[in-house]
Amino acid sequence: MCEAPIDVARRDVRPRRPALLPIRHSVVVGSAGIDSFTVVSFNVNGIRAARRRGFDRWLTERSADIVAIQELRCPAGELGDFPGYSVAADVGSVAGRNGVAVLTRLPPVAVRTWVTHPPRARGLREFATHGRYLEVDLADRPVTVACLYLPKGGLPAERQRRGTMRDQPDGGAKYERKQRFLTSFARELNRNRVAALRAGREFLLAGDLNIAHTQHDVTNWRAARTMDGFLPEDRDWFDAILGRRRLIDVVRRVHGDHAGPLTWWSWAGQSFTKDVGWRVDHQLATPDLARRAIEVVVDKEPSPADRLSDHAPLVVTYRECAAGGSGP
């Protein structure tokens, strides 16, 4: 249970790069170079549980430069240390829920949460203490990295039928909450992107958006059209935040219009073994940074017994960038 209404934690440790060990299993697209940096987005579905399953070993083996983590689901006092990384985190005020963090090799120049820097979009104020959004300005490259855990929604009231849903009908409450978030966050995201560019920084949004954007991001996309996360309004929102001069879906840019890669599989049944899943984890970047993406890797474990979470880490390697920004 959280000890305080809100915990915003930041730990700085002396940066050191652990030796690279073989990754257990990876789905790789593209070709990485030497002068590059690596960004991971990973919904750990509870950092304490993930650490018991081997998160620390994965972190050492992967040796990423930046790791954006969602669903910490623990108070700040139990977050622990991550050797070799500086940790910026907002664990939120809801016990056992949400929480985001960004691990970096050097302490960030600046850290912003919705507690320290309240969102200007009014519709986000109800979410401000929930631990869903965190921004860091990197010290070693001109990039702002934002970590997002977007609320999971539900079906609108008129589509809910008792006995055909995993959850009990709620009159569309979760659906409406998510839609409020989406509407307001689109405005907030645009402001933050422009602010980063005006400061001479590229902008990268990494996180679990709880939305699969295209039919290539869901195994059974026809069936998914009536499910939360692939509803027409969810996908229309995703369309609206992307654009040649706004944000680029980095994974899709590298992978092209081909099925996958996937990043989430249900714990139940044979979904993981049969690779029946979704890609709800994303990295969206300003155009110049997106063009620097040279490799996409999904660290999918070889067997269900090895899973760290119901998500797999989404890893993107970028060529190093110089100061300047893409321009607002």
UniProtKB/TrEMBL annotation:
Q: Which residues are in the Endonuclease/exonuclease/phosphatase domain?
A: 40-311
Pfam families under this entry?
Exo_endo_phos (PF03372)
Q: Name one GO molecular function term.
A: double-stranded DNA 3'-5' DNA exonuclease activity
The UniProt entry, under InterPro entries, shows: AP_endonuc_1, Endo/exonu/phosph_ase_sf, Endo/exonuclease/phosphatase, ExoIII-like
Q: Which residues bind Mg(2+) 2?
A: 210
Site label Interaction with DNA substrate, positions: 311
Instruction: Specify the domain of life of the species encoding this protein.
Output: Bacteria
Give the cofactor note.
Probably binds two magnesium or manganese ions per subunit.
One GO biological-process annotation of the entry reads: DNA repair
Recorded hits in NCBIfam families, A to Z, give: xth
Protein name in UniProt: Exodeoxyribonuclease III
Which organism is the protein's source? Answer: Gordonia mangrovi
